[in-house]
Structures are given as C-alpha cells and as structure tokens.
Records
---
Amino acid sequence: MRNGVNSVLKWAIAAGCAVLLCAASPRAAAQGCAMCYQTAAASAATGRDALRHGIWILLLPAVSLFLGIFVIIYRRRNPRA
C-alpha cells in the first residue's frame, strides 16, 4: 500500500510543478513572429477562428505522439523479467 501512496504523491508533485510552471510564465506561450501577429490582428472574426482551429489541428497530433511515446517509456521503465 505504501508504494501506491508514493506513486500518487509523485504524480501530485509533478502535476503541481507543471501547473506552477505554466502559471509563472504566461508570456512564454505568446511568443510569435511580428508578421503572424499583424496578419492575425488584421483578419476578421472568421479568420481568427480559422487560425485558432488550425493551431489545435496542428497541436493535437504532436501532443498525441509525445504522450504516446512517454506512456511507452513509462511502462517499460521497469521490466518484469
């Protein structure tokens, strides 16, 4: 039972650190080139919505691949031989 508690505690600490890191650097997510910013600012509401959807469409496969590889590495970290 003690091992399960340690595992949950480690996950809770990691999640807390991730939340604090994201909250501490709000400007880090807003980096971009000046041309992209000007184009997005000058577009109509439908253009901005299309840009937001495009960002999600490009982000989801990359995050899925990263999480998939992370899960495979996590499961194989301690082989049961």
---
Amino acid sequence: MGPHAACDQDQMPRCQLCEGVGGHAYGDKNVEYDPVECSIISLPNQTNMSTVHWPVYPKKFTISRVDGRPGYSDTLIGWKTDPFCFGFFPQNDSIPPLCYRSQDAIGKWYDAYGSRNGTAGAARSDYTIKESGIFKLFPNITSTILQTDWQMWIQNDLWGVKQCICANPSGNHCTEPPCKSYVWHYDTFKSAQYLGRERIGVEWLRHAGVGKAAKLWDLDHFIMWTHHAWTDPISGRIVRMWKPFNGLQNYDPEAWTDDVDRSVFDSPPALCKKGGAKIRINCDDAGNFHKGLEHLERLKQIALKATEPMSSEIIQIKLAEKIA
C-alpha cells in the first residue's frame, strides 16, 4: 500500500501483517514515498505472547542522542499553513497541499501530567532540519515544537533569524469555538490490536537510510484505526509508528529514559513574547499575535537569488541590507 492508504482495524478486510506500513513520504501523490522491506515472522497464535509489549508510552520520558547519533527521527506531515512549511502540525484529514518534513531530534521530552496546572500533558521536540526547495542552498536550521495544555509554540532559528509561531493545534475544524487539542495521552494505544511479528525496515536509526536502505528489525506490529505501531520484543520499547497524512516516528530503544526535567516545558517561551523573536506570528505580547511576515518574504527573495551554498552570517548580512 502507498503511504496515504487508509487501512484500519474497523475496515473489512483490515490491514494484515506487512500492509499499511508506510515509509518516508515526501509528496502528496501515493507513489511519493520510499517503501521499506517487510516479511512476516509469525501470526499471534505462532508468537510467544510473553515477549509481546503493547505500544504504551511511559508516563514521562526523555529521548536523547546515543553515541552522537539521533535517538529519535521523524517525518511530519501536515497542512501547509505557510509557503515554506516552517510552521505546521499533523491534522486529521488529507486535504492537500501538505508539508512533508523529515528531521532528526536533538532531544524529545514528554510528561502525561506536565502542564502548568498538572492536569494535561506537555511535550517538546528539538530538531535539526535540512531544508529543501528554494532554501536547499541554505544551512540546516533548528526548530523546537513545544506544547503544554492546548497551546503550541513552534520556534525556529532561520539562519540566525529567530522566529516564533504561536499555534492552536486543534486546527481549522472548529465549528463551535473555542476548540482545544491536547498532547497525546501515554496509553492512547493500550487497546491497539496485535497483528503479529514482522521483519521490517526502520528508517534513520543507527545510521540507516530510507526505503531499502532502512535497517531491518524484528518487531511486533499493532494497529488502531489508521495508526500503526511497532514495538521491540527485546527492550519492550516503541520503535516505529506510522499514520497516513500524519507522519512517521522512529525511536532507538537505547535512547529512552523514563524521567523528565519539567523545566523544558516552561511556557510561553521568551522568544514568543514581546521583544523576543524578530518574526512573531499569531503571538500577542504575552506569547499569543500577527506580525513579522515581511521578514519571511525577504528571506524568500534571498533564497531565490542564491546560486551557491550560503552561510548563516551571509544570510543575516543580506537580510540586514534589505531591511535598511
């Protein structure tokens, strides 16, 4: 099946082993993805169920780099809300055009009850992103996606130019505002259905590539609606997750720590407040406005005229010249 095929446990026939497994997607067409290899090891009645672990997250965790390599990598897929895909988040439909952004995590943090009032979750991911498209000649950028309660802040370092996008991750489906969408709950997949054990390619982890260059792992495959999840029978950790039009998530079993420093969730971030980032979108003075889009347009013009790789220092000089 292509990456965007909707295959779930409520359909007849539902997905079977090695179906609906997705892969590194990079476009809206069903062929625009890199399929991984997959072979069946055993059905549930052929598997030692004492070695099967359901895809339930720890109530709090930290994902760190392992021996200098990323402990977590993903492809985010979501609605295109700006021309550069600097600020977007997965939503619950497939109406294109969509953004596809693959990235390595510097770190990832989660607490099921880590919000300021302790009743909702908090999550944060810090990424290194290699830009493509018109910005392909520019250096990597860094991005932090932080959510506490129903609010989200996307903070980007655009080659030395700071940006903050204040967001409501509930998206544009709201018909009776206010609408709120919270961080996923740690046991969301406790009722997932077990399909069996597969030998499947896992992208990026431990210096692997995508598609046929992915590293083969023996993992247990679960399904819940259109969500797919794979766990490691040895460590019991979640290793791979996939949902069409949402994205691909891969975790190294060695990268987990079942604890978190809640200070990483401090919000609203200083960059998003008045006097913070040069580019602030949909942020008011306290951390929520609509200002700064002109700087994005200037960066676009610099990128369109670029004929060779540019350093962050040169980009900032050229931006200053345009502002002057």
---
Amino acid sequence: MPPIPGTFVSLSAALIWGSADFFGGLAARKQHVFQVLTLSSFSGICLLILCLVGQAEMPPSLSGLLWAAASGISGAIGLAFFYYGLSLGNTVVVAPTAAVIGAILPVAFASFSEGLPKSFQLAGFLLAFLGIWLVSQSSSTAARNAHTGFWIAVLAGLFFGGFFIFISQVESGQVFIPLLVSRSFELLVAFLILLVRKIPIPSLGSNKLALLTGLLDSGGSILFVYAKYLTRLDVAVVLSSLYPVVTVCLAFLLLKEKVSLSQWVGVALCFSSVVLISI
C-alpha cells in the first residue's frame, strides 16, 4: 500500500481523537471520571454495533479476542487518568504529555517487530515528539494543577501505549468486532469501579458531552485500526498521536486557555513532522 492513504487516515484519527479528548475533559468537570467513562463507552459501543450492521466481518480468533479485551482494559484505565487530568483545567500539559508517552511504547515495539523505519520517517518521529513536548510546556507550570496533571498524563500515556500495542496484535482484516470487544471491556471496567466505589450509575441523559465523547473516541479508534493496516504501526501511532494539537487548539479557541509561543512552535513542528513521515 502507498503511504499516503495511511497518512491521511492516521491524521483523520488524530483530528477525531483530539476533539473527543476536548469534550471528554469538559464532561469530566461535570461528573465523576468513571461516570463519564461509562457513558462514553456505552455510546461508543452503540456506534460500533451500527457499523457492524450489514458487514460481513468474521470474528477474530480466540487470541485476537483476548488481545482486544486487553486493549479495552488498558484503554479504560488510560482514559480514566486522562479525563481526570483534563478536568483539572490544564489541557496544554495533559494532552501532549499523554500523547508522547503513549506513542513511545508502540514505536519501540514496532522497531523490534517490524525493524527500524526509514530515515525520513525516523526524523519525522523525533520532530513529532519534540513538537508534542513543546506543546506540553504550559505557561503556568508553577501552578499546582500543572504539576499534578503532568504525572497523571504520564500514567494515562503508559496505558494508551498498551492499548495501541494490544489492539495491533489482532489479526489483519478485523476492525469492528475487536473494537466492540475492547469497548465492552472498557465499559465493564468502568461499571465495576462504579459499583465497588458506590458511585451512582449515570443516566443516559445526565451528560450529553460524555455520549458525544464516546462516539468520537470510537470513530477515531476505527480510523486508527484501518491506518495500521495501511502503514506501519509506528507511523500510524505517531501520526494519530498528534491529537493534542487539536485538543489544545480547541482549548485555546473555546476555553480561552493561554497558549505560549513555544507551544505554537510545537504545533508547527507537529505539522512539519507529517511531511517527513509521509515521504
């Protein structure tokens, strides 16, 4: 397959995931993070079921199902940390930091399993990591929330990396069923934690932003799975991990969060990295 389709699909995933993260952070300001995760997982499952209607997709093997389940558990924990971090009101720290950490693990994994990428792509990876890191440099780093948000984002990124690696182990040609299994386990984790911690089960109409987040998150996941079939895992992950650019821009435009010069430089570097990775 030529690299352009994989690049386009990966960037589309980044656009949708970035929007999902922005609305997920807003939703987590209104409800407990696991209530948000429960609602978003439910709406995401509904979207995946609709996508399966009329599809002739065969179920994956037992090992594929187990990998999908593992990705759902890892993704659920990562999203819980991530939404909590965003709810602290420091999007420009949390989103990029989680993206960098979440991309490093799959890139290292792909280097061992698929070999090193081409020199231009490797340079693009380094440029993307630098750009994302610059975006994460908050102009208010002295604030307590910025420091707390950073370490929460690190934890979220580790579990995001697990999601990328686990879902990539499902055999080729499988899209909707593995994601449906993954999202179902995500819902199960959120539901069990609500029961254990005696947090009320949210009603479907209690947080419409959480429902929107789930639709967007599943949409981004669908595009990512397609992208990893069109190109290398590390290329798909790094380009999809440019989602913080979208999240930070939305926070700047809609929430009036301050964005420093170094952060805008980081945004420019992220866009430049796309050119190198696509060569």
---
Amino acid sequence: MNLKNRCLSLLVKSLSFPKIKTSAPSRILAVSTTALGDTLWTMPALESLRKSFPEAYLAILTSHIGLEVVENNPWTDASYLMQKSFNLWHHLRGQFDTIILFHASQRITLPLCATLGAAKIVGTKGMNKGLDHLLTDSVLYSGQHEIDRRLALVEKIGGKAHSKKLSFFFKPEEKKIFTGCWIALHPGAADRYKCWPVEHFATLGNALKKEFPCNILITGNVRERSLMQELAAQIPGSHLADDSLSLRSFAGLLSGVDLLICNDSGPFHLACAVNTPAIGIYSPTHPSRCGPLICPSAITVFKPRTCQPCLGRQCQQPFCLLQIGPNEVLQKALQHLKQKTLY
C-alpha cells in the first residue's frame, strides 16, 4: 500500500462512525464523480435503483458536469457536489445505510464514503486506486460494458436491472430547433489518443457538403477552441458552435441536429441520451465496453489498436485511428442519413 493510501486508511479509522444497519436499503447514496460519459452510464443504474427500491431515499454524489446530467431526473431525491469540504462530510455523515460507488476519479472519494456510517459500501473490485479494503461488498469486473458494470452493483444490493437505456431530461425551453439539414462534427475528446485526425474530419465535412445540401456545425468546448477553428478553416461555409455553452445548452443543441459525427467521447453518449443519430469513431478503445449499448440510432466505426501495449493517455500520435479513412465514415453517414429520409 502506498503512502497516500496508508494515510487515507488511517484517517478513515480515526473518523469511524456507528454503522447504520438495515435489512433492506432505505437510504442510498449513489456516487459518480467523473466526466460526462461516466455519469450518463450511471443513469440506467439510477432508474433501476428507484424501481427496485421505490420507497427508499436516493441521492447522488457527483461532479459539476454530473449535476447538469442528473438535473430534472425523476429518480433521485437529492444531488450533492463532490468537493473536499468539511461541510459536505458533516452533512452526509450518518445519512445513508447503503453507498454504491459507481465511478470516482478522486482518490479521496472512497475514504470519504467509508467515514459516513453506511453499513454497506459497494464497488467494483480493482477499480478503487488500491483502496478496495474500504469496501464492504465488491463485484469482480469481467470486462462487460460500463452500463452493465454499474447494473451489477445494483444487483449486488438486491436490486434488479430495469433499464440499459441512456436518458437526459430536458426542460421545454432547452431544446434547439434548426431549419434544414445540420450535421455536427465534434473533433475533440478529453484524451488526445482518442482523436481522429482533424484533416480527416475536414475531408469528411467537405464530402458531406458535396453529396447534398447540408450545414456543417463544428462543436466543442473552450479547451477545444483552436481545434474547432482549425477544422472550420478547412471546411468553407461551416458554422462554429458557441464553445462556452453549458452542458445542458449543448445537449439542447445536439437534440436539434440531424447527425453527430465524433470521437469516442462524452458528446457521443450525450447524443444517444437525447436521441440524436450519431457516428462514433473508435480506436484504441473498444465499443463493447464503452460504445452505445441500447441505442439504435448510434453506430460505431471501429478498428482494433495497433500498438501492444497501448500507451493510452501517454500516446501523442494515435496511429490506430489512421486505419479509419474519411470515406469509410462518409459511407456510414450516407447510409445513416438515408435511413432517416434526409438524403
């Protein structure tokens, strides 16, 4: 055990709290403090928890972006922002008998949960930064899809998997309406090694405009502004989306386009959640684990990784993505648009 984990384990012992025991879960805290896609994958688990334990109090501890994802959902009773704060710890302590750790980026999250007094702390074995011993119950990861991994944790506490479909709950004013055919290209991703070359996106966008009258909308966030501008410069007549939109405004934007083409990234899963047709470009990640699961309007273009071992986030030149050419994605897009009677 490394020094950080030893210190955190000692802290947990010093902050021990009487366990809240119950025969069945009655106050449940779901924990998902990571990024967009990870929180969207948690939505079927939240729905399943609500339907499995309709009388239970169900809250979620999540990230800033997670708060926007779960806003307006019909399943949770409360939402809390994960932060290193005594006030948060003091407020949550003694409130829950069951905690389910779906996914957490911060090392402190599980130790925090272990000091809240829950009789059950459930998580996936081997995915807790060396702190599995703080779980009371664990499920072995078997390489299944991330949605199924989360649902296995629901089943571990006696619940049932009621849904595998992603969801996002709009307020009426949040949806965007476009006139004509609009295709969104999203060239960025949180990780460089998941990014298809911008030149390929440009070739694809120009080919789409040549095939039929359509508007190309280039989307991204503030960190991706230069990438968006680089792509726009290579597609004459394209439109740049506002890169400062909130997540919910961006979701409303996606709900109005006819097709999204993007990398393996949060926007692909967001498109699935808002029922927008989408094409995701995958390599080295595998769609069987992090692609669309129950989403007929979403398809993937996938090629296996070329390097063994894969460098992952250390990779600066993702050669595996060079296996996917613009024409292959174009044909998928045309096929997709024909099915939607847009072509």
